[in-house]
Structure formats: C-alpha cells, structure tokens
Amino acid sequence: MIQLDVTLYPQEIDPAGKRDPQAISTADYQKLIRDALDDLFPDVTDRRERRELMALLSPGATDLLRAKVMADPSLIGQRVIIDVPFSDDLDQLAKGRIDAESETATRRVTDKQIEWFQRLEQRGLVRQAFNTTLFTAGDSRSPELAGIWGSLVGTFWTMLITMAIAFPLAIGAAIYLEEFAPKNRWTAMIEVNINNLAAVPSIVFGLLGLAVFLNFFGLPRSAPLVGGLVLALMTLPIIIIASRAALKAVPPSIREAALGVGASQVQTVFHHVVPLAMPGMLTGAILGMAHALGETAPLLMIGMVAFIVDIPGGPLDPATVMPVQIYLWADAPERAFVERSSAAIVILLGFLILMNLIAVMLRKRFERKW
Amino acid sequence: MQLLILVLTLIVLSVIGFYLGRSRAVATSAGRTGHCIRSPGYYGWYVALWCALPALLVFVGWLAFEPEILRAILIDSLPQSARELPPERLSLLLNDVRSLASGNVLSRAADPELQAAAERYIGTLRISRWALFAAVLALAIGGLLWARSRVAPRFRARNRVEQVITVFLIASSIVAILTTVGIVLSLVFEAARFFVRVPLGDFLFGLQWSPQMALRSDQVGAAGAFGAVPLFVGTLLIAFIAMCVAMPVGLLSAIYMAEYAHPKFRAVAKPLLEILAGIPTVVYGFFAALTVAPFFRNTGAELGLSISSESALAAGVVMGIMIIPFVSSLSDDVITAVPQSMREGSYGLGATQSETIRRVIIPAALPGIIGGFLLAISRAIGETMIVVMAAGLAANLTANPFEAVTTVTVQIATLLVGDQEFDSPKTLAAFALGLVLFCVTLVLNIIALRIVTKYREQYE
User: Fold this and answer.
1) Are A173 and B175 in contact (CB < 8 Å)?
2) Which pTM value belongs to this model?
3) Which of A145, A200, B89, B409 could tie B85 with a disulfide, CB 3.0–4.6 Å?
4) Which of A296, A347, A355 to mutate against chain B (most B CBs within 10 Å)?
5) Rg (CA), chain A
6) Cα separation, A156 vs B117, whole angstroms
7) The domain A149-366 belongs to what CATH superfamily?
8) Whether the Cβ atoms of residue B388 and residue B285 lie closer than 8 Å to each other
9) What CATH code would you report for B225-459?
10) Eight-state DSSP code of residue B330
11) What does the domain layout of chain A look like in residue ranges?
C-alpha cells in the first residue's frame, strides 16, 4: 500500500488573534508554512529557491493546517507539531523510485530539493506514515491528496441502480421463459437474442447508452443513473441465463405435485419452484453484479471518466466508479499515481473476491441433488 | 425530495390497500363459502395493485413529458424577440432561465427579463408538481376505493392478480429484445449519418486512418481519413496473439482437469479459475501497461530487437491470459460431456489414456471446442480496456507484433471520450466502427452457439 513520508516540524501559528472562525479560516496558512520551512532552512533566501522549497510539500499542507487550527483555536499562538505529507515527487524520491544519481533533466526533482530532503532526513524529521486520505478523499490532481472515497460512493449508486433494475427484470424474464412461455418461434427468438446479448462486447452497450439514454432521452452525462442503466442492460442476459439454469434444475415432480393439489400455474411457480431456485438465482445475480462492478469500457462512453473531486450525493450527480478511477490514475503522468491505482485495484479485487466467495458459498450451501 | 415523498405516500397507500382488501374479503365471506375464504391475500393484492399501478403510470408519464411541456410554456411566455432566436441561442437562454430558477451559477449576469422568466418558470413548475401530486393521489385513492368495492365472494381476484404477474413477466423478457433493437437502431442510424459523409467503400477498404478533423481548412491532414483497414488488421493481430496464448493453455488445462486431475484438485481449481475470469479487465490493462510491456521492451532490447512500449505483443499476451479461463471452462464442459461409454470402449480395445484422449475424446469434442474458440475470438475482438491501456493509438498497417497497433475498440473509446458534438464525422465514425464490431461478434457468436448446441444434441 501507499506510505507517505511525512515531515514533523515545529510551527508557529499567529493569526490576527481575534478567534473569529471566519478570520481563522481565511488566514494565510501558506505563509505560516513557508515561515516554518524558512526556519528549517535559513540559508535559502532566493525567491526561485524558496518556491522550490515550498514545492517539497504537498499543496494540501495548508488545508491540513487550517483544519487543525479550526478544530482547536486554542492552539493559536503556540508552537504545534503537525505531520505534513511531502509532494508526490519527493515521496517517490524517498522510496527510491527516483534515482538521485540520474540526470537532472530526466527527473522531476531538482538537485537542491534532493539536498534539502537529505538534510531533513539527517535531522530525523522525515518519517513514513500510512496515508489515510486514500479512503476519505475524492479525486485530486496531486497523488498524495487523491482518494477513492468519491469513486466508491459513485460505485455504490451505480450498483444500486443496476441491481434495482437488472435483478427483478432478469428474474421475471427467466421465470417467463422457463415456466410460462409457449415453445414457439417468438420465444425461440427471445432465447437466441438473450444468448447473443450475453456475448455482445461491453463497449457496444456504452454506445447504446450514449445514443439512447444521453442523446435521445437527454439524461445527464456522467450520472450514476445512466451508468447503472447501461450496466443493468449489460448484466441482464448474464443473470437471465444463470436464473434459467437454476429454474431448470428444479425437478418437474415438484411442479406436478403442486399442480396436482390444485395450485394454479402462477401459484406453483411462485410458491414452490422459485423458492427452490432462489439460491441459484442469487448466485447468478451476484456474479452478474461482480461483472458489472469491474466493468469500465461502457462507462467511458457515457462520460463517467470526468475528473470529479466532489463526493457524489445521489444518482444524478456526476460521479465516477472504481474501475474508471483506476484507469484514470493508471493513465496519469505522475509516477505516484501508480501506487494509488495499485491500492485501488487491491480494494476492487477485495470486493470482487468477496462477492465471488459469497456466490460460491451460496452454491455450496444450497446445492441439492434431486 | 417532493417526488420522493409522493412515492413513499404511494407505497404506504398500497400497503393500506392490501390490508383493506384482505380484511374486507374476510369480512364479506364470514359465515359463507366463497372464493374469499381460501385466499384473502389475493384480494389484498388486487386492491394494492389497483391503488399503485395506475398512479405509478401517470407518475412516470408525467415526469417523462413534463420537461417538454414546461419548455413549450416557457417559450410561449418569452418576449417576441427571444422567440425568434435561432435554436441554439434559444436553448442557451432556456438553460439560463432554468439554472437561475434552481439557484445555480449563470453563464451571464441576470437581467430583469431573465429574472421574470425564471420566476414564471418556477411558478409553472410548482403548478405542475402540485397537479402531479393531486392527480397521483386521486388516482391511487380512487383505484383503492373502486377495487375495494369490487371485493365480493363471487369475484375472482386471484385470476386478475395472476394476469398482472404474467404481464410483468412477459414485459421483462421483452426488455432483452428491446435492448437488441436499441443497439441495432442506434448503431445503424448514427452509422448511416456517417456513411452519408464518408462512403462505405472508403471506410471498409481505405488504408489511412486519421480521424482528426482540422479546425482550419488549410491545416495538414485537414480532410481526415477514415479508412478502417489498419484498425481491422490491428484488431485481428492482437486477437491472433491472444488466441496463440489462450488456445493451447486453455485447452490443455481443460484436458488435464477433465481427464487426469484428482477430483479434489478439480474442486479447488475450478472456483479459482472462475475467480480469475472475474478479474476486471482494467486490472489486466494495468498489468499489461505497467508490467508486461516494459518487460517485453527490455527483453527485446537485450536481444537486439526494438519492441515498442505499446507493442501489440504485450496487449495480445495479456489478453490471452485473460481469455484462458474462458477457453478452459468452455472446453472443460465440452470434454466432460463426451459420454463415458466412448472412453470405456477405447480402453476396452487396449488404448492407453493418452491415446484415448488424442484419438477418441478430442475428435468427439472437436466441434464444441471450436465453438468455444470462436466465442473466445469474439471476446478478444470486443475487449476494450486492455488495448486502450496497453496498445497504442497509432494506426499502423503492419503485421509485426513488436510495433504499436490500434484496434477498433481503442478508436471507439478515444473518439467518444470527452465532450463532443454529434454532427462531426469523427464522433459518428465511432458508431460505424461499433456497427462493424457488433456485426462481426454477432456472426461469430451465432456460428459458435449453433455449433455448440448441435454438438450437445448429438450426445444427449
């Protein structure tokens, strides 16, 4: 996982002294941090060099300091010690991903920055810490401030919509085709159609979503609602096929017994066949959802690749989902995003393996030999 | 928020309807023998459905048509000068009014006229919402009362409820058809608009692909070339490399699992393979772009080969790895479906196990295996994320696996990501490519499914 190197350094805080939250929140924390850095490196005076010095730290440092002061105004006037993350390039340097011996032109940190960093290290101000912003923040341009929480919430809304649409429709279709449909050309066509739909490339569903949901119905771009609709259409055939297999596995004797004691066909199916087939259907549904959870390509088409910092609050807010976030980070030029995307992949795979395990266990637990 | 309250009210009303219907059914049948006694629940359902369904239909229909009607009213209320604006300007103005009404940031300063329009808009919206509220509630309560009045011992509620259920089931299976129709229509319409500008022959047989449309007419490559042959070649090249990896490994592992492996090993390996099949393609793409491609490039450099960092080889090999579980499980199903009697017949004639597999089982399973391969090829052709991340964008017409090639799916993705206008050939080209992709995979799938089902019938 990602470790971020954090400097520990003393800091003098001294805003106007009125303790008014408005004033505190608008105080120039950047200057405070710059002063603190100047204390550490009194020999740096040149303007350009000072800017380089400031670039050691993450741009989130000021927000961090502000949050700390806002939380506890009594700190004002005291020296406090805060942990501030380094900027992503320095972080990579600390981890040895950037070779200090290599050509100056080919690396992203300057000679001076390396020297300052080594001085900080000698003074024991550098330490490694677990960067929890990964779990709490939305996307960001700076790797050390970026997190997956935004995309997790987006994934949640998208999956909710997918499930709400795909599950009832798929089960309804499976029940109809397996239990009620007369065997004629019409139903044969539906069957062939569903089998083909299951093998249509996912990106084509993205094109469908773009042309129908966005252009024809005018739904908002980047919204989990549209993503959920597209993924629901995509997972529908998968769940239908699995549910039909589960229904087929229920022996005909059950149906005949129910019909024999006077149940109607609907009663037979809903009171006897469906409960027995439910574990199999649920397994299919979970596998379908796992499939939808990992899907990226169709969502690229409907604009869920946008750079979204805010945490989405509902299915109509612009959002992105985990796999798309991974794709975005993997494509980002900053080296440190590789670690972020690796971390996001680990989390995504964790979810997927969990879902698959549940499906396998369900199948094991309820598997029956008739 | 308002709408949510409405939906919740509707649900509550339906629940009340259910209990009202049921209790009335019990009450009216007290002391008599009728249909009610056996199943009062159906009467409850009957009332609840009558309460919820018509109201819900009106609700959805209202929300679907509301924006159009509001727009018409809004345009009507605007001054004459505004109404005569060209359509784009008019829609911009309407957007401004709407965002002013919802308290968002405007694209310009709000003048009093705009303010007035926004207020009128809010007014109509409020009227519309209240009317919706009233209509839905009236329908729900009316439906409830009417259905409740019909509850009587002679009335067969169950049949009605079952009819509704059947209609729902039929409707859900029609969604699958509608999806296909939607895919075909959207692809065909947009592609037709593309082929109006770029002739079909140029698209299918042209050797130049450079979809960048110039902003000025005197720029280099201003015309934009839409010859898709380099894309088809690239796609086939990557699919070919993928199949070179996936076919042998998948088939051999299937043979091992089906014929040699201990049942215990099989019980562990099968779910593991399934999990492997469930890994998202974006993860494979990450793996391809950051691990496999640099590895190939470095190895190539040591061997004196120049391998591009976005080589077809890396994308193809990783795609092959992705398809292995797919090929393996399809082949495994086919091989285990070969009847035991054929194996025993072969053993009885003195063949060894490997002879049996080579001479009897594989030939018997061959149609099914080939069907599986075809499905795998269609998968490889339609796969997007691996190639988007690991293969390049340069449309080279080459069969050299060490060079960068691009594929149909990569081009669709790059042409359509980001904002785009819907009348440039550049965006429409994506739909034309999508149509080709859809047709090719469809044909492959139909052939494969036909082979597999034919084969299955042979042994059943």
Assistant:
1) yes
2) 0.84
3) B89
4) A296
5) 28
6) 38
7) MetI-like (1.10.3720.10)
8) yes
9) 1.10.3720.10
10) H
11) 3-131, 149-366
